[in-house]
Amino acid sequence: EKGGYQHFMIKEIHEEPKALRDTMASRIVDGKVNLSDLNVTREQLEKAGKIIIIACGTAYHAGVVGKYVIEKLARIPVDVEIASEFRYKDPLINEDNIVIIISQSGETADTLAAMRMCKKVGAKVIAITNVVGSTVSREADHVVYTWAGPEIAVASTKAYTTQLLCMYMMALDFADKMGRISADEYQRIIEEIRKLPELAQEILDDKEIIQRCADETFNASSIFYMGRGLDYAVAMEGSLKLKEISYIHSEAYAAGELKHGTIALIEEGTPVVALATQKGLFEKTLSNIKEVKARGAFVIAVAMEGDTEIEKEADRVIYIPRVYDILAPVLVVIPLQLYAYYVAVAKGCDVDKPRNLAKSVTVE
Ligand code: M6R
């Protein structure tokens, strides 16, 4: 059942190229996004005022990327909310708002409760879920399925990458309907999206350096993640993966925030995973790497092929294939998933069933 792999998690990581391919198949046709499952009109988008993304855990982290790309491409304001926070406040929501619910299982109790609140005020609810027939899929107005296949490991991997892909397709669809994206930019993103499965496979074919980084750091008591912009969003997900399966204390920081407090935690040998894939932010992240290095950090950087300048500053560099930087999260997260996995295996942890966690959190 594990297809020759030692754990479901590593099997599911290896299924990411296929999951991406399946999720875009029939939705990217003749150079256009065709989300037939989602008939949001231009009028609805114009009237919406804002989009609200609601989710928990890894799905929430996919939402953080979603906010960034919808705002960037479609120029529609997006709030991204943790379901258990949203449901217990007096949220600012009205019937014109568009709500996107993200849930791999489609059964998470807080996410369901938040969704029902949104439906009650009459907002239009779109769900991104992986489970056909799940409660979320039955109750939402529209469903965009991630075709990742069953995800068994508690740590979510292929669901996240396909949730990201759905966010990109939606952002393109909205941007196009709103007339806010040029034909060239639209085509460029489509072409690069189509390459993602193949590029993800390249990462999976060359894991040696990631294994080495894990071997060098699995004894650490704390591991920090940092990045700017989309890299920060992925840093949060990388940090969560590590925490849940390796039990190592970890935090993710917006790199520019370090000097406002966190840098005080860096000691001789503290591992810092620094993500530096965003074009306009590369130099800025490089200076943050210098800052933590100066305090003794052991820096594992993730950068794009060709950005070799980073080798001067970081102790180890994991390269991802070059891609339009707005799409980088889909690739950057893969080495982070693998790193968390190798660290957990090196520590002898029960990777697929980490302590205290359930695959689907149906209690409140
Ligand atoms: O099924 P859902 O996507 O609604 O689940 C949400 C979270 O419980 C889930 O992503 C959790 O954070 C994972 N264990 C992360 O790997």
Automatic annotation (TrEMBL):
<keyword id="KW-0963">Cytoplasm</keyword>
<comment type="function">
    <text>Catalyzes the first step in hexosamine metabolism, converting fructose-6P into glucosamine-6P using glutamine as a nitrogen source.</text>
</comment>
<keyword id="KW-0032">Aminotransferase</keyword>
<dbReference type="GO" id="GO:0006487">
    <property type="term" value="P:protein N-linked glycosylation"/>
</dbReference>
<dbReference type="GO" id="GO:0005829">
    <property type="term" value="C:cytosol"/>
</dbReference>
<keyword id="KW-0808">Transferase</keyword>
<dbReference type="GO" id="GO:0005975">
    <property type="term" value="P:carbohydrate metabolic process"/>
</dbReference>
<dbReference type="GO" id="GO:0097367">
    <property type="term" value="F:carbohydrate derivative binding"/>
</dbReference>
<comment type="subunit">
    <text>Homodimer.</text>
</comment>
<keyword id="KW-0315">Glutamine amidotransferase</keyword>
<feature type="domain" description="SIS">
    <location>
        <begin position="41"/>
        <end position="180"/>
    </location>
</feature>
<dbReference type="GO" id="GO:0006002">
    <property type="term" value="P:fructose 6-phosphate metabolic process"/>
</dbReference>
<feature type="active site" description="For Fru-6P isomerization activity">
    <location>
        <position position="359"/>
    </location>
</feature>
<keyword id="KW-0677">Repeat</keyword>
<protein>
    <recommendedName>
        <fullName>Glutamine--fructose-6-phosphate aminotransferase [isomerizing]</fullName>
        <ecNumber>2.6.1.16</ecNumber>
    </recommendedName>
</protein>
<dbReference type="GO" id="GO:0004360">
    <property type="term" value="F:glutamine-fructose-6-phosphate transaminase (isomerizing) activity"/>
</dbReference>
<dbReference type="GO" id="GO:0006047">
    <property type="term" value="P:UDP-N-acetylglucosamine metabolic process"/>
</dbReference>
<feature type="domain" description="SIS">
    <location>
        <begin position="213"/>
        <end position="354"/>
    </location>
</feature>
